Protein backbone atom coordinates (compact mmCIF):
# COMPACT_ATOMS: atom_id res chain seq x y z
CA UNK A 1 0.00 0.00 0.00
CA UNK A 2 1.05 3.56 -0.70
CA UNK A 3 0.21 6.67 1.29
CA UNK A 4 -0.95 9.67 -0.76
CA UNK A 5 -2.10 13.19 0.02
CA UNK A 6 -5.06 14.47 -1.99
CA UNK A 7 -4.60 17.77 -3.85
CA UNK A 8 -8.15 17.98 -5.22
CA UNK A 9 -11.46 16.96 -3.69
CA UNK A 10 -13.17 14.13 -5.54
CA UNK A 11 -16.90 13.74 -5.04
CA UNK A 12 -18.61 10.39 -4.90
CA UNK A 13 -17.50 7.16 -3.34
CA UNK A 14 -14.40 5.08 -3.80
CA UNK A 15 -14.43 1.58 -5.27
CA UNK A 16 -14.01 0.12 -1.77
CA UNK A 17 -17.11 2.00 -0.52
CA UNK A 18 -15.13 4.68 1.35
CA UNK A 19 -15.21 8.42 0.67
CA UNK A 20 -12.43 10.53 -0.77
CA UNK A 21 -10.69 12.66 1.88
CA UNK A 22 -10.54 16.44 1.62
CA UNK A 23 -7.30 18.01 0.31
CA UNK A 24 -4.86 18.74 3.12
CA UNK A 25 -6.41 16.05 5.34
CA UNK A 26 -4.14 15.24 8.29
CA UNK A 27 -4.15 11.49 7.63
CA UNK A 28 -2.81 9.80 4.50
CA UNK A 29 -5.03 7.89 2.11
CA UNK A 30 -3.81 4.33 1.68
CA UNK A 31 -4.15 3.13 -1.92
CA UNK A 32 -2.56 0.48 -4.09
CA UNK A 33 0.58 1.41 -6.03
CA UNK A 34 -1.38 1.32 -9.31
CA UNK A 35 -4.10 3.63 -7.94
CA UNK A 36 -1.44 5.95 -6.55
CA UNK A 37 0.21 6.20 -9.97
CA UNK A 38 -3.17 7.01 -11.56
CA UNK A 39 -3.81 9.74 -8.98
CA UNK A 40 -0.33 11.21 -9.53
CA UNK A 41 -0.73 11.24 -13.33
CA UNK A 42 -4.12 12.96 -13.04
CA UNK A 43 -2.55 15.49 -10.61
CA UNK A 44 -5.20 14.66 -8.03
CA UNK A 45 -2.75 13.52 -5.34
CA UNK A 46 0.92 13.44 -4.45
CA UNK A 47 3.02 11.09 -2.34
CA UNK A 48 2.38 11.51 1.36
CA UNK A 49 5.08 13.80 2.77
CA UNK A 50 5.87 11.38 5.57
CA UNK A 51 6.39 8.49 3.14
CA UNK A 52 4.82 5.05 3.20
CA UNK A 53 6.16 3.98 6.56
CA UNK A 54 3.39 3.11 8.98
CA UNK A 55 5.76 2.93 11.91
CA UNK A 56 7.23 6.45 11.73
CA UNK A 57 7.09 8.54 14.88
CA UNK A 58 4.35 11.08 15.46
CA UNK A 59 6.95 13.85 15.60
CA UNK A 60 8.40 12.90 12.18
CA UNK A 61 4.91 12.77 10.71
CA UNK A 62 4.08 16.23 12.12
CA UNK A 63 7.29 17.70 10.69
CA UNK A 64 6.61 16.14 7.29
CA UNK A 65 3.03 17.46 7.32
CA UNK A 66 4.21 20.98 8.19
CA UNK A 67 6.76 20.90 5.38
CA UNK A 68 4.06 19.72 2.96
CA UNK A 69 1.74 22.55 3.96
CA UNK A 70 4.50 25.13 3.48
CA UNK A 71 5.32 23.67 0.08
CA UNK A 72 1.65 23.56 -0.93
CA UNK A 73 1.19 27.24 -0.06
CA UNK A 74 3.49 28.10 -2.98
CA UNK A 75 5.81 31.03 -3.45
CA UNK A 76 5.07 34.35 -1.77
CA UNK A 77 2.58 36.54 -3.58
CA UNK A 78 4.06 39.07 -5.98
CA UNK A 79 2.79 42.58 -6.46
CA UNK A 80 1.29 42.92 -9.91
CA UNK A 81 2.08 44.97 -11.81
CA UNK A 82 5.58 45.19 -10.38
CA UNK A 83 6.23 48.48 -8.65
CA UNK A 84 8.41 50.93 -10.51
CA UNK A 85 10.85 53.08 -8.55
CA UNK A 86 9.24 56.40 -7.74
CA UNK A 87 5.70 55.13 -8.33
CA UNK A 88 3.01 53.71 -6.09
CA UNK A 89 4.70 54.81 -2.89
CA UNK A 90 7.95 52.97 -3.57
CA UNK A 91 11.31 54.53 -4.04
CA UNK A 92 14.51 53.23 -5.47
CA UNK A 93 17.54 52.77 -3.26
CA UNK A 94 19.23 55.57 -5.19
CA UNK A 95 16.59 58.10 -4.15
CA UNK A 96 17.64 59.76 -0.91
CA UNK A 97 15.08 60.26 1.81
CA UNK A 98 14.72 63.96 2.59
CA UNK A 99 12.34 66.10 4.57
CA UNK A 100 12.55 68.91 2.00
CA UNK A 101 9.27 69.92 0.35
CA UNK A 102 8.78 68.91 -3.24
CA UNK A 103 9.46 71.85 -5.55
CA UNK A 104 6.86 72.85 -8.08
CA UNK A 105 7.83 73.00 -11.74
CA UNK A 106 9.00 76.42 -12.92
CA UNK A 107 6.85 76.25 -16.02
CA UNK A 108 3.09 76.04 -15.57
CA UNK A 109 1.41 73.09 -17.17
CA UNK A 110 0.19 73.84 -20.66
CA UNK A 111 -3.53 74.50 -20.49
CA UNK A 112 -5.86 72.81 -22.89
CA UNK A 113 -8.76 74.30 -24.78
CA UNK A 114 -12.22 73.64 -23.32
CA UNK A 115 -14.13 70.61 -24.47
CA UNK A 116 -16.58 71.10 -27.36
CA UNK A 117 -19.47 70.60 -24.93
CA UNK A 118 -18.24 73.45 -22.69
CA UNK A 119 -20.30 76.65 -22.43
CA UNK A 120 -19.61 79.56 -24.79
CA UNK A 121 -18.41 81.61 -21.79
CA UNK A 122 -15.62 79.04 -21.26
CA UNK A 123 -14.63 79.41 -24.91
CA UNK A 124 -14.64 83.22 -24.64
CA UNK A 125 -12.40 82.99 -21.57
CA UNK A 126 -10.09 80.63 -23.45
CA UNK A 127 -9.92 82.93 -26.50
CA UNK A 128 -9.01 85.88 -24.26
CA UNK A 129 -6.26 83.78 -22.62
CA UNK A 130 -4.93 83.12 -26.13
CA UNK A 131 -4.72 86.85 -26.93
CA UNK A 132 -8.17 87.70 -28.32
CA UNK A 133 -9.97 90.92 -27.46
CA UNK A 134 -12.84 90.21 -25.02
CA UNK A 135 -15.45 92.17 -27.02
CA UNK A 136 -14.37 90.49 -30.24
CA UNK A 137 -14.47 87.03 -28.58
CA UNK A 138 -18.00 87.72 -27.27
CA UNK A 139 -19.09 88.67 -30.79
CA UNK A 140 -18.03 85.29 -32.22
CA UNK A 141 -20.27 82.24 -32.08
CA UNK A 142 -19.11 79.26 -30.06
CA UNK A 143 -18.35 77.41 -33.31
CA UNK A 144 -16.17 80.30 -34.55
CA UNK A 145 -14.30 80.36 -31.21
CA UNK A 146 -13.66 76.61 -31.43
CA UNK A 147 -12.38 76.97 -35.01
CA UNK A 148 -10.12 79.95 -34.32
CA UNK A 149 -8.82 79.20 -30.82
CA UNK A 150 -9.45 75.54 -30.21
CA UNK A 151 -7.99 73.96 -33.31
CA UNK A 152 -11.38 72.34 -33.94
CA UNK A 153 -13.09 72.34 -37.35
Your description of this structure?
The structure is a single chain. By secondary structure, the chain is mostly helical. 31% of the residues lie in helices and 7% in strands. A three-stranded antiparallel beta sheet has the order 2-1-3. It is elongated, with a radius of gyration of 36 Å. The N and C termini lie far apart (82 Å). 13% of the residues are buried.
**The biggest beta sheet, please?**
3 strands, antiparallel
Order of helices and strands: EEHEHHHH
Strand order of the largest sheet: 2-1-3
Number of helices: 5
* Total number of strands: 3
What is the share of helical residues? 25-40%
Kindly give the count of domains.
2
End-to-end CA span: 82 Å
Provide the residue-averaged pLDDT.
Answer: 76
Uncertain segments are none
CA radius of gyration: 36 Å
Q: Which strand-content bin applies to the residues?
A: 5-15%
How would you describe the shape? elongated
Topology:
Blueprint: E1 2-6, E2 29-31, H1 33-41, E3 45-47, H2 58-72, H3 120-129, H4 134-139, H5 142-149
Antiparallel strand pairs: 1-2, 1-3
Helix pairs in contact: 3-5
Amino acid sequence: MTNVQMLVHITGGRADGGVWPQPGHDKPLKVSKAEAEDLYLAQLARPWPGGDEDDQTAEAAAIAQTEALIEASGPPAEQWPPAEPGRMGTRSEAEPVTDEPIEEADEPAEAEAPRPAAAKADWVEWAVSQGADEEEANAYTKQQLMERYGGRP
